[in-house]
């Protein structure tokens, strides 16, 4: 065994995928060190702990992690139940992190500042693959590793509001009026939204969750107004596959949202981009630019930026990465996850070969591996790390035997331009149980089967104090 092989594999992030990687490394007998910037396992998940995911427990538990937990006498939750983020941490991630096989290898408050090769900048080649990885923490401490599995995610790097990928004019000055994705509208953050006008920007499931909570709040508190703004000319992709979705809660999410918009409880702006923001008299004026080039000003109290996330590859600037120029994923993975072609339920199986970079031994996994594509599910990340760890163990047969069983979204693609107004072309439409809210784990696309009643911003929204759909 070489000196390099005696070093641990460094796992960055102790979220669901990072801990799954640690569990697989433990099963393979490979030493590891898990570096978590937060103060506990699942620190990012805790920030959306109030949200109930739309995938049941059976899709959220990694097989290797479950084997370790079962051996310790863990009582598994109802596999058909939908956990909240808080339950995901309390009932799964925390017990997993506390197992004696993993706990000694987890380090909290360990934020990675940079990754390189010991004695090698990005330019040097000869002998590079035999050099250990050098990981520098923000404290200045340096750690050596034989390989790096980067499961740090994208939660800390949300997209900006500006349509060009740059902040809108005045976006920084208006920061006090902006909310990160998935605020706790009906709980801890209620006072910031009750009786106020909120603009939600974005077309994914994060936006849908927030809009549904705001609609519930509007039914309870007079004067609470909700406006939803999207860049596309149609909200079809947000509405999704409805009853044809294999995850009923995900399908019901879009159906409820469509009902609220149709009833006027949520006002919808389509075909727009945010051009400028400016504080005015304790509120914020938003200049929206329409597709025809005309501008319109909307004055609101709060803005929820549910515009998605992007990976931060800056910590790996001295590594040799091969990133797709559009997605920010590896070139091999990008066409498999392109949201113009795939929903989160139609991503094909992929593993170590699609995740590999020219920098041998470095793998970005989980949400970070998807770049800017929002089509990620936890089950996808679990299969990624199983494949990567098998490769690190030298078991290339297992590494390349990638299999992925994902629930279909009930739609054939995520391009709203392909909407035909007919039934889904992806098979039968099972009856859905009562609606439930779900976390943003991907764009599900959709076929818009009923006419949409668009409400002008100048027209009063009806039903602001009336009842709303059951949650």
From TrEMBL:
Keywords associated with the record: Oxidoreductase
Which Gene3D superfamilies did the record assign? Answer: FAD/NAD(P)-binding domain (3.50.50.60)
Q: Which InterPro entries match?
A: Auxin_biosynth/cation_transpt (IPR050982), FAD/NAD-bd_sf (IPR036188)
Cell inner membrane listed as a keyword: no
- What's one Pfam family the UniProt record gives for this protein? Pyr_redox_3
Could you identify this protein by its name?
A: FAD-dependent oxidoreductase
Organism the protein comes from: Micromonospora solifontis
């Amino acid at each position: 065994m070489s000196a390099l092989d005696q070093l641990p594999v460094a796992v960055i992030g102790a979220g669901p995928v990072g801990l799954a990687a640690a569990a697989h490394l433990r099963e393979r007998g490979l030493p590891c060190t898990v570096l978590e910037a937060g103060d506990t396992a699942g620190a990012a998940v805790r920030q959306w702990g109030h949200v109930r995911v739309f995938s049941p427990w059976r899709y959220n538990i990694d097989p290797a992690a479950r084997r370790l937990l079962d051996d310790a006498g863990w009582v598994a939750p109802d596999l058909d139940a939908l956990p909240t983020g808080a339950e995901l941490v309390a009932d799964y991630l925390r017990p997993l992190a506390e197992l004696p096989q993993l706990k000694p290898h987890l380090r909290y408050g360990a934020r990675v500042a940079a990754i390189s090769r010991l004695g090698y900048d990005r330019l040097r080649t000869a002998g590079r693959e035999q050099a250990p990885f050098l990981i520098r923490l923000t404290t200045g401490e340096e750690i050596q590793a034989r390989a790096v599995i980067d499961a740090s995610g994208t939660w800390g790097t949300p997209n900006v509001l500006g349509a060009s990928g740059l902040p809108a004019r005045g976006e920084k000055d208006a920061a006090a009026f902006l909310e990160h994705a998935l605020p706790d509208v009906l709980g801890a953050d209620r006072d910031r939204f009750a009786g106020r006008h909120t603009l939600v920007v974005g077309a994914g499931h994060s936006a849908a969750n927030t809009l549904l909570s705001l609609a519930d709040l509007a039914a309870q508190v007079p004067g609470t107004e909700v406006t939803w703004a999207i860049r596309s000319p149609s909200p079809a992709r947000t509405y999704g596959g409805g009853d044809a979705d294999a995850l009923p809660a995900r399908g019901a999410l879009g159906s409820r949202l469509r009902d609220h918009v149709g009833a006027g409880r949520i006002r919808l702006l389509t075909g727009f981009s945010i051009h400028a923001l400016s504080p005015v008299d304790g509120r914020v004026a938003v200049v929206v630019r329409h597709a025809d080039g005309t501008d319109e000003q909307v004055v609101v109290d709060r803005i929820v930026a549910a515009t998605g996330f992007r990976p931060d590859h800056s910590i790996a600037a001295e590594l040799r990465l091969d990133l797709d120029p559009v997605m920010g994923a590896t070139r091999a993975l990008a066409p498999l996850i392109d949201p113009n072609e795939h929903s989160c339920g139609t991503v094909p199986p992929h593993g170590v070969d699609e995740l590999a970079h020219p920098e041998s031994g470095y793998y970005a996994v989980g949400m970070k591996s998807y770049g800017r594509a929002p089509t990620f599910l936890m089950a996808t990340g679990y299969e990624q790390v199983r494949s990567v760890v098998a490769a690190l163990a030298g078991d290339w047969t297992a590494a390349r035997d990638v299999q992925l069983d994902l629930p279909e979204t009930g739609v054939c693609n995520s391009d709203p331009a392909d909407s035909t107004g007919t039934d889904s072309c992806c098979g039968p439409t099972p009856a859905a149980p009562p609606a439930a809210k779900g976390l943003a784990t991907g764009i599900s696309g959709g076929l818009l089967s009923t006419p949409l009643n668009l409400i002008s911003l100048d027209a009063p929204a009806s039903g602001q104090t009336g009842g709303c759909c059951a949650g």
